[in-house]
């Protein structure tokens, strides 16, 4: 890969020239992960958009779908499984309910509580979108050998376990 093809290598070179007293090798990993994350996110968002979904809506539908029959959860549980606040989940649910993809009802266990359930249309949509999502992720990994994918997954899982709270 030439220097023109690798922004991170170019930036590292510039910093080595300007600040030879600093070790900029961590930038080789972090900078590339950051750039790759941005590029991958663009690819994922484009796929979600083809199904009329944003990242948050896709996440909520997928969380409900993988909960299994009857495909329902409390909003607080959805927030924990989607790593967003209950307020953010509420906004997503408003959009999904308006689109007929989820329904909200009172909880049988708690009169103040609500339960969110996937509609048939929501289940059909997330089933189709998730299958396309998996094909897209497979395509994005095509350039890596099976061994490299396994190594990368193991390394990232180990690193994430140490960094994630």
Estimate what percentage of residues fall within beta strands.
5-15%
Number of strands: 3
- In CATH, the topology of the domain at 55-127 is named Arc Repressor Mutant, subunit A
CATH superfamily of the domain at 55-127: Winged helix-like DNA-binding domain superfamily/Winged helix DNA-binding domain
What gap, in angstroms, lies between the N and C termini? 36 Å
Radius of gyration: 21 Å
Order of helices and strands: HHHEHHEEHH
The CATH architecture classification of the domain at 55-127 is: Orthogonal Bundle
What can you see in these coordinates?
The protein is mainly alpha-helical and 165 residues long. It has a domain at 55-127: Orthogonal Bundle (Arc Repressor Mutant, subunit A), CATH 1.10.10. Helices cover 66% and strands 7% of the residues. It has seven helices and three strands. It has helices spanning 7-18, 26-50, 55-66, 75-82, 86-98, 120-140, 146-163; strands spanning 72-73, 102-106, 114-118. A hairpin with a 7-residue loop joins strand 2 (102-106) and strand 3 (114-118). Helix 3 crosses helix 6 (120-140). The radius of gyration is 21 Å and the shape is elongated. The protein starts with 6 loop residues before the first helix and ends with a helix.
Furnish the topology, listing elements before pairings.
Elements: H1 7-18, H2 26-50, H3 55-66, E1 72-73, H4 75-82, H5 86-98, E2 102-106, E3 114-118, H6 120-140, H7 146-163
Helix pairs in contact: 2-6, 3-6, 4-5
């Amino acid at each position: 890969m030439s220097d023109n093809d690798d922004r991170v290598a170019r930036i590292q070179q510039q910093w080595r020239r300007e600040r030879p007293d600093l070790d900029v090798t961590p930038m080789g990993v972090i900078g590339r992960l950051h750039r790759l994350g941005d590029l991958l996110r663009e690819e994922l968002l484009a796929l979600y958009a083809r199904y009329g979904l944003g990242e948050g809506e896709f996440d909520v539908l997928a969380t409900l779908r993988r909960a299994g029959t009857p495909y329902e959860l409390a909003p607080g549980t959805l927030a924990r499984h989607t790593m967003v606040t209950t307020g953010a989940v509420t906004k997503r649910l408003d959009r999904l309910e308006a689109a007929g993809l989820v329904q909200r009802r009172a909880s049988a266990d708690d009169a103040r509580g609500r339960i969110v359930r996937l509609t048939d249309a929501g289940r059909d949509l997330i089933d189709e979108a998730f299958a396309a999502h998996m094909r897209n992720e497979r395509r994005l990994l095509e350039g890596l050998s099976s061994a490299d994918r396994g190594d990368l997954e193991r390394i990232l899982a180990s690193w994430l376990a140490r960094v994630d709270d």
